[in-house]
From TrEMBL:
Keywords: Coiled coil, Membrane, Transmembrane, Transmembrane helix. PROSITE patterns: PROKAR_LIPOPROTEIN (PS51257). The chain crosses the membrane at residues 37-60, 67-85. Residues 96-206 form a coiled coil. This is Glycine zipper domain-containing protein. It comes from the Bacteria.
Amino acid sequence: MMMNRIRPVVTAVLVAAILTGCATLPAGGRNNPEREIFIQAMMAGAAVGAGVGAAAGYAVAGKGRRATGALVGGLAGAVAGAIIGRMTAEAQVRTLHDYQMDNRRLAALLQTAQQRNQAVAQYNQQLEREIAGLKSKDKAMRGQIASAKLKEARQNRQAVQRAMADRRELAGKLAAPQRAQYEQTLNALQHEDQRLEQSITRLTEMEQPVVGGAGSDRRRS
């Protein structure tokens, strides 16, 4: 019986509170999904506050003034509930901003890692072409060029391995979905490291002097 009398009062107060709250949304809150967060939180807070306030006002007011008591209590409760809902929405929006910032940071990390992988892949491709071209050189020239290329390749591999160690450390700090994405760049870099290791092995073989060459010269003399 009491709730039937209170319900229209609560509805009127709730609508007024929501309209007032929506009109005071900050500029950033007018864009989805932030606007939806504010509206839903304020509606929920105002609804609960209006119901509790109206019931309390109806119970406290004397006979003949209960409708007024319900109206005043409902208004006060709706305003308080809307304020609490707004505070909750602000916290939720901050969380959303943090999440979006984390996504942007991850996107930047992924882009940097992919660019590094591409640079290493291009270096490997160029080095493999140069190694193939050494076959046409005489042994002395081939050994000299291989020695110079070997020094450069070893330095580059050290840099690649440092990058791999950094990525492993960073991947361990990321949440599971982000870690899975970032580890893909680590796996790709490990593949390029293996290619570089194979090139270093081939250059090392080319750099070594021919075993038994001096003995062969002595036999010919």
